[in-house]
Amino acid sequence: MAEIKCIGILTSGGDAPGMNAAIRAVTRAGICSGFSVKGIYRGYRGLITDEIVDFKTQNVSNIIQTGGTILKTARCKEFTTPEGRQLAYDVLKREGIDALVVIGGDGSLTGARIFANEFNFPIVGLPGTIDNDLYGTDKTIGYDTALNTIMQCVDKIRDTATSHERLFFIEVMGRDAGFLALNGAIASGAEAAIIPEISTEVDQLAELVKNGFRKSKNSSIVLVAESPITGGAMGLAERVKNEFPQYDVRVTILGHLQRGGSPTAVDRILASRMGAAAIDALLEDQRNVMIGITNDEIVYVPFSKAIKNDKPINRDLLNTLRRLSI
Ligand code: F6P
């Protein structure tokens, strides 16, 4: 293996709270191990257009507590083409970057995997997404903060839902994964969660109505994962309005506020451990792996597994939610 002297870091795809803590950890652990470090702005787009600066330890001062990403982020179409990736490779050579740490979700790690194979280039990935939908790690960076944000928002909505005795459908992010909806529902004492993992098996709304989800309650809150498979909060509310006009229904879509805010201690620690582990992985000649943490242990997950394997939802949680919402 060629010797690694200089490491580039980038953040890509949707931002997630804790990305800055991860940038800080990669930079400082990298410098501690004798590497030089470069920050690549605007994800793969900045790699193609050469928006790259030297990173010293001061570049990452005072950022552990901040949301977003100081490196900015983007979703880059050009990098999905061989021509775009060739341009990116030329920039890496010109900048003297010998390895990359990519912080992002499944789209970003898919790009990393293709690039690493195409150019035999060392890349280590960090799972940075609020969706928690990467296989091989118990939690992704940003998930815990987003979950706490959802919980705080639902607490507020509950006040008005209770006062007006209304049924609320609250839509949360997660793309095609129900982790935020399901755990958000448990954390906020919601009556139900409607998630894509189950939508293909049962009509969850029909089940809820059949089980009399408002039997003992004057108000109810249902968390809905944003996926088209669930019908979304708007779609479900329309159905209820048509089929049960007696219910006073309202919809709240939490949207991008779930992606912002100061990271929780859980996310800061996760990002710090994972960032330092990315440097260890490169020192150990690991290639094309995502850093995960399972059962509190650092693990190296091949990109192919992290991206391709569907991360299963814990079905016991659905049962817990049902039992506690009577
Ligand atoms: O992947 C993170 C995520 O926040 C998803 O939950 C959501 O579907 C998507 O990004 C939204 O992306 P954008 O910010 O590009 O609209």
CATH architecture heading of the largest domain:
3-Layer(aba) Sandwich
Structural class: alpha/beta
The amount of beta strand, in percent, is 15-25%
User: How much helix, percentage-wise, in residues?
Assistant: 40-55%
The largest sheet is: 7 strands, mixed
Strand order in the largest sheet: 3-2-1-4-5-10-11
- Under CATH, the topology of the largest domain can be stated as Rossmann fold
| Basic shape | elongated
User: Radius of gyration, rounded?
Assistant: 21 Å
Number of continuous helical runs? 12
Summed over residues and divided by their number, the pLDDT gives a mean of 95
Distance between the termini: 60 Å
> Cofactors and ligands present?
6-O-phosphono-beta-D-fructofuranose
Count the strands? 11
The stretches of 5 or more residues where confidence is low (pLDDT under 50) are: none
Broad CATH class of the largest domain: Alpha Beta
User: SSE order, as H and E?
Assistant: EHEHEHEHEHEHEHHEHEHEEHH
How many structural domains?
2
